[in-house]
Specification:
2 copies of one chain form a homodimer. With 319 residues, chain A is an alpha/beta fold. The first copy, chain A, has 2 domains: 205 residues, Rossmann fold; 53 residues, no CATH class. The first copy, chain A, has 13 helices and 7 strands. Chain A has a 7-stranded parallel beta sheet, with helices on both faces. In chain A, β2, α5 and β3 form a beta-alpha-beta unit.
Chain lengths: 319, 319
C-alpha cells in the first residue's frame, strides 16, 4: 500500500499524465488514498503560478483559457488547466466540454486539461480544486489555469485559491458591472473585457476602470480588453499578469496571500475532520436522524439538539 | 437579560415588526442573544409556508415577489419577504433595494420586507436566512417569500430551505437552460418563465418542459409563464404553488423534506460550534497562523497540521 503510493507519487513527479489524472479522480471521489498521496507530493509543491479565470456563463472563459495556454506554451512553459464545472445527470457538461476542448491541445503533452466534477464532495469544490492544483504543481506544471463556471460563492472561494484572479466581463450580457456579485469584483486582480469587439465594450471598460479605482488594496486591478476568439489582446493580458506577479513579489503581498490561503484551507480541513469525527462518535447518521425528528416535531430546539451532539462527542472523547 | 429576551420574544409573537427587524439584525450580526431568542421562539414555529424565488440577475425576481405578495395579501394571508443579497462596500445594494421596494407595501403592515446582508457571517448565508425565516414564522407570517440574487451554491442552499422553490428563467438573457447551474435545475419545484411576453419565451418554456420531464422525483416540476410587470400569470403561478403544496402533504414528501432540512441544519450548526471550540482550544487565531506559516514553508504538510490541531483539541477536551 505504502509502496504503491510512493510509486504513484514518483510517476506524478515525473509528469506522467495518467498518474496525474488518477490522482485528481481520487480527490474527486473522496478516495481515502488521496490524503496519503498528497502528503507525499506536498514537499515539492509551491512552485506553480495559479491563474484563476472566472465570470458568468457566456463570457468566453474556455476560449480565453485555451488562448492563454497556447501563449504560455509558446514561451516554453508547461501548463495545466482545471475546468471546474459542477456537473449533474441533467447536463453531463463537464465531460462533454472536456472532449471538445481536448482536441485543440491533444497533441501537445505540455498542456494537461481536466474538468473537475465534485458536486457534493465533502469539504467542497474549493478544497478539491486546491488539491488538484497541488497535484499539477507537483507534476511540474509551471502555469495552472483554474477556470470556474458561474459566479457564486463557490467560485469566489476558488478564485481565492489563485495567485492571480481574472474576472471576465462581456458587453451586452444583461449582466453589467452593477449587477455583478460584489465578492467577485473584490476578488479580481485583473478585469478582462472579453468579446471586446462587441458594441458596448468601451462602456464596460470604463465602468470597470471606475470600479478598479475604488480598490482598497495596494494593487489597482488592471483592465484589459481581449477578443479571445481571434487572440486579440492575449499578449497584453499575459503582460498584465506578469506585471501583477512582479507586484506580488516586490510588495511582499504574495507571502501574505499564501498565509491567508493556508489559514483558510487548514480551517476547512479541520472543520471536515471534526465533523466526521463528531458524527461518528454521536451515533452516526442514525443518531442525527433521530435528533432531526425531535427538532422537526418541536420536542427540542436546534440548539439543544446540537448541545446534545457536542456533549456526546465530548463523552466519546473522554471514554 | 432573560427577562429582556422573554419580552423581545413576546413582542415578536405579537407580530411587532420592530422587534422582528431587531431579531433579524441580531442574526445578521452574529449577536450572542440571537440563539437564546430563537430558542424561545422555536416552539411556535413550523407553521409558515416558505417559498424560495431564485434565478440569475435580471430575471425580475423582485417584481415577481412583490406581485406574489400582493396576491397573498388579497387572500388575507400575512406575508414576509426576505431578500437575500450579499452586499458589500462596492454596491450597498441591499439597503438601497430595500428602500425602493418598501414604498410599494409601506402602508400595508401585512407585508414585512427585509434584505439580508450576511456576507462573511459564520455559518453562512443559508443558516442566517433560515433563522430569519423562523423569526417571521414565529411572528405569524403565513407566507414567507425568500428571494435570492444569483445562482451559486449559496443560493441553492437557500432554495433548499424553502418548502417550494421557484426558479425564474427569462428569454434572451444569454443564460439559457443549457447553461443553467445543474443544482438549480434540480432544486426547482416550479419553473417560471418570466418576461413571458418577450421573443423566445415559447422556446424557453419548451426547454424547461423537457427538463421537467427528466425529473427523477414523484413531482414533475410545473412550468408557468408570467409577466410580472403586468401581473399576467401570477394567479396561475399561485395555483401551481397551491397544487405543489397539496402534493407535498398528500405524498408525505413534506415530512421527508423537513427531516432532511433539519439534518442539514443540525450538521451545519454542529460544524460551526465544533470549529469555534477547536480554534479556541488550540491557541486561537495565533496558533492557526503559526501552523499556516509552517505549511506555507513546507515544514509540515496540511494533514500533519490538522492532526496537530485535532490532538491539541483532544488534549484541551481532556485537560
Amino acid at each position: 500500500m505504502a509502496d504503491a503510493l510512493h510509486n504513484w507519487a514518483a510517476r506524478i513527479h515525473a509528469g506522467d499524465t495518467r498518474a496525474v489524472s488518477r490522482a485528481i479522480s481520487a480527490i474527486e471521489n473522496g478516495d481515502g488514498r488521496a490524503e496519503g498521496l498528497l502528503a507525499l507530493l506536498f514537499p515539492s509543491t509551491g512552485r506553480a503560478f495559479l491563474i484563476g479565470v472566472t465570470g458568468a456563463a457566456g463570457t468566453g472563459k474556455s476560449t480565453l483559457v485555451d488562448r492563454l495556454a497556447a501563449h504560455y506554451r509558446s514561451k516554453d512553459q508547461t501548463v495545466g488547466i482545471l475546468a471546474v464545472d459542477p456537473t449533474s445527470p441533467f447536463t453531463g457538461g463537464a465531460i462533454l466540454g472536456d472532449r471538445i476542448r481536448m482536441q485543440g491541445h491533444a497533441a501537445d503533452a505540455g498542456v494537461f486539461i481536466r474538468s473537475m466534477a465534485t458536486r457534493g464532495l465533502m469539504g467542497g469544490l474549493a478544497q478539491a480544486t486546491a488539491d488538484a492544483a497541488l497535484v499539477l504543481d507537483a507534476a511540474g506544471r509551471q502555469i495552472v489555469l483554474i477556470e470556474t463556471v458561474g459566479v457564486g460563492q463557490d467560485e469566489i472561494d476558488i478564485a481565492r485559491l489563485a495567485d492571480c484572479t481574472l474576472v471576465l466581463v462581456v458587453p451586452g450580457l444583461g449582466d453589467d458591472v452593477q449587477n455583478m456579485k460584489a465578492g467577485l469584483l473584490e476578488a479580481a486582480d485583473i478585469f478582462v473585457v472579453n468579446k471586446g469587439d462587441r458594441e458596448g465594450a468601451d462602456q464596460v471598460e470604463l465602468q470597470l476602470q471606475e470600479t478598479a479605482h475604488l480598490s482598497a488594496g495596494t494593487w489597482q486591478p488592471a483592465v484589459v480588453r481581449t477578443t479571445a476568439t481571434t487572440g486579440e489582446g492575449i499578449a497584453a493580458l499575459a503582460g498584465a499578469i506578469e506585471k501583477f506577479r512582479a507586484h506580488l513579489q516586490s510588495s511582499g503581498e504574495q507571502r501574505e496571500r499564501i498565509l491567508a490561503q493556508w489559514k483558510r484551507r487548514l480551517l476547512s480541513l479541520l472543520e471536515q475532520k471534526l465533523l466526521q469525527r463528531a458524527v461518528e462518535e454521536t451515533g452516526g447518521e442514525r443518531g442525527l436522524e433521530l435528533l432531526a425528528r425531535e427538532v422537526a416535531d418541536r420536542k427540542k430546539n436546534p440548539y439543544e439538539a446540537v448541545r446534545q451532539l457536542l456533549s456526546a462527542e465530548r463523552a466519546g472523547r473522554e471514554g
